[in-house]
Amino acid sequence: MTLRIDISGPPAERLRFAASPLAELTAMLHVLAEPGHHPRLAGWAADVWAGLRPELAERLREADFLWRSSQADFLIPARPRPTLAEELADVDRIDDERYVTAALVTTCGSSRVHFAARSPLADPAARQRALDLAQARGASQEAFAERLLADPAAVRARLRDTLEQCAEAFFDAAWTGIAVRLAADLRLKNDVLKHQGLGAALASVSGAVTLAPDGDRIIVDKLQDKSTTAHGTGVTFIPTVFGRPHLVAVHTAGWQPVVQYPVAEPGPSEPVPVPVPLETVTLRLEALAHPVRLRLLRTLARGPHTTRELAHAWELSPPEVSRHLAVLRRAGLLTARRHGRYVRYSLSLPDLTALGTDLLAAVLR
Questions:
Q1: What's the pTM value of the predicted model, to 2 decimals?
Q2: Cβ atoms of 266 and 43 closer than 8 Å
Q3: pLDDT, tens digit, for every residue of 190-204?
Q4: Residues 94-121: pLDDT tens digits?
Q5: Where are the beta strands (DSSP E) in the chain?
Q6: Do 363 and 301 meet the contact criterion of CB atoms below 8 Å apart?
Q7: How far apart are the first and last CA of the chain?
Q8: Residues β-bridged to residue 2
Q9: How far apart are CA 164 and CA 86, in angstroms?
Q10: How many other C-beta atoms can be found within 10 angstroms of the C-beta atom of residue 267?
C-alpha cells in the first residue's frame, strides 16, 4: 500500500521544504478532534477545549470531518506563506468547484468520491450522490453537505471566520514557539538536501518515505495504492509539531503533491501502556496477521465506517468484510455503535497502542 509520486522530468525544484501556518493549524484541529491519536497532547487538547467560547467549540464540532480522519486538500497549502492570513487569502482564490469537491471528499469519507465529470453544484444526480454519501457518515456531515451545495460562498466565509477565531483563541499564542521548531527542522532538511541529495533528504523525513531506485518516483507508505505526478511543480514537504505520528499526503488530481511530516525532535515521553494478558496479545496478533484486516484497521483509523463503506473502499463483499470485522471485534480492536439504520465501526486506539508504538504509528500513518 503506497502512494507513488512521479517526479520525472525537468522541474527546477523537485523537492522543497517550507513551513505552513495553515497546515499547522489544521494539525492542531485534528488533535482537538482526535486526542486519542496524540496521547502526548491530550492535556493541551483538554485545556484548549476548556477555554473555547461555546460558539467556537460548536463550530469546530460541526465541521470537524474536514480535519478529523483526513484533511481537506485546501487546508494543506502547496505554496506555504509566512502568515496564516496570506494562506487563507490563497484559499479564497480557489474556485467553488475545486473547493466544494475537496470538502465533499472529506465530508463523504471516501477517497473514491469523484465529481469531475458531473458537478454536484450543477448536476442533480451528482448532488444527490454526494448527499447520500454524506448521510451515511452522519447527521452533521449531511447537514454540512446540504449547506455547502446550497450556498458555497456562505459556508466558505463561515469556515474562514472559524479558522480566524481559532487563531485568536489558541493558534497565535502557540505559533511563535512552533515556528522556531519548524525553522530548525527546515534548516536540517535543506542542509541534507543540498549536501547529501534527494534520497537522503527523503530518508530524513520518515522511514515511510523513500526514493525509488530509478530516482524518478517518491514512494510514501499510505493507506491505499495510489499514484500522482509532480511534473513541473515538484513536491512540497511541510514539517509539523502537532501532526505526530501522522504522515499526511495531498495527491488528488488537480492538486500539487504535498507531504506533511512530523518534525524530527521527539516530544515529551508518552505514558507507559497498561500491560495486557498474553492471551489477549496472542488473540490480537492473530487477528492482525491477515493483510485484509490490517487494511481495514488503517481505514478505520481515519474514522468510523460502516460495513458497506469498507466493502466499497476495498472492493470486497459486505459478508467478507463482516467476517473480518468479527475477528477484529473478538480481539478487542474495534467498537461498534448504531446510528439510526447504520452501524459504524471504530478503531480502539488504547488497545492498539498497548501492542506497540510502531504498530500504532503504521496504522495511523
A1: 0.78
A2: no
A3: 999 999 999 999 999
A4: 999 999 988 988 887 654 455 556 788 8
A5: 2-6, 15-17, 209-211, 217-221, 226-229, 235-240, 248-250, 258-262, 334-339, 342-347
A6: yes
A7: 11
A8: 221
A9: 12
A10: 14
Lookup: cell for 239: 514539517
User: DSSP assignment, residue 207?
Assistant: T
CB 106 within 8 A of CB 65: yes
Long-range Cβ contacts of 199-207 (<8 Å, 24+ apart): 201/15, 201/17, 202/15, 204/264, 205/237, 205/259, 205/261, 206/247, 206/261, 206/262
User: Percent of the chain, pLDDT > 90?
Assistant: 54
Radius of gyration of the chain (CA): 20
- What residue ranges in 12-87 does DSSP mark as E strands? 15-17
In the block, cell 489544521 appears at 26
Task: Please answer whether residues 134 and 142 qualify as being in contact, where contact means their C-beta atoms are separated by less than 8 angstroms.
Answer: yes
Locate 251 and state its grid cell.
495527491
Cell of 299: 481505514
The answer to whether residues 60 and 49 touch, using CB atoms and an 8 Å cutoff, is: no
Angle at 74 between CA 72 and CA 80, to 5 degrees: 130
